[in-house]
Amino acid sequence: MANITASDVAKLRSLTGAGMMDCKKALEEADGNMDTADEILRKKGIVKAAKRNEKIAAEGTTLVKTAGNLAVIAEVNSETDFVANNEDFQKLAADIIDHLLANRPASMEAALDGGIREKIEALVAKIGEKITLRRFEIAEKTDADAFGPYVHMAGKISVLILLTGTNDEALAREVAMHTAASNPKYIERSQVPAEVVAKEKEIYSEQLKQQGKPENVIENILKGKIDKFYSEVCLVEQPYIKDEEKTIAQIIGNAKVAKMVRYELGEGLEKKGCDFAAEVAQQMVK
Description:
The chain is of the alpha+beta class. It has helices at 6-16, 20-29, 34-43, 46-50, 81-84, 87-103, 108-127, 169-182, 194-210, 215-233, 248-252, 276-284; strands at residues 59-67, 70-78, 131-140, 146-152, 157-164, 239-240, 243-247, 256-264.
């Protein structure tokens, strides 16, 4: 059998876009012949899967899971909601989050190289649609803390809250539900970048000047407007959705929101329209 080198595997991967392990196996099966290995990958549908890379995957699901003192939140994308509702896709997403919990990879590359890439490519080859693990975050707590996991609308939004200073899981989940609905950008004032606050002040100041407000009162009015801005973007200052007479800070009392992660499916991704008949015709000639 031919000696398969790392550079051989890298070259085949560059040519086909297939995963490292798939390339290595194909080269071993082809006794080192690059063309034969390429053909093997094509026959298995793996190159077809790699060619989906230019597609935009903006559908799919978000999910969150806890296990003792560990928690993980993730977004797994597909191109269409048809595939997102597929049983195989749902199983893949569940397998991915279990893998992340069990292995706690430090980066996306570590997660993919740990076995997730092969799982994704196998399903892509089967269904012919791009699937990606877009992002994930892992959190750890102590027995004295509480996780608040919450999934909204069957995975359209997922939230992970970590409260310290309390182990009240029901309270943490309430904060997570609120976060899903109100979409705060920061936990507290100290996290809001100075340039963001400065820009808000600039905008409000210009508005007040155009309204003819005198300079000596603008500063006082600005303070009130900035306070209102904080109450809109900072979680702990927001009115609680179930009782707007109270803020989140009042709801949690002496506890502290140590972590807030909110994933909304497809946020920031461009969702392109598609002529379904043209898409099918395109697939038929591949």
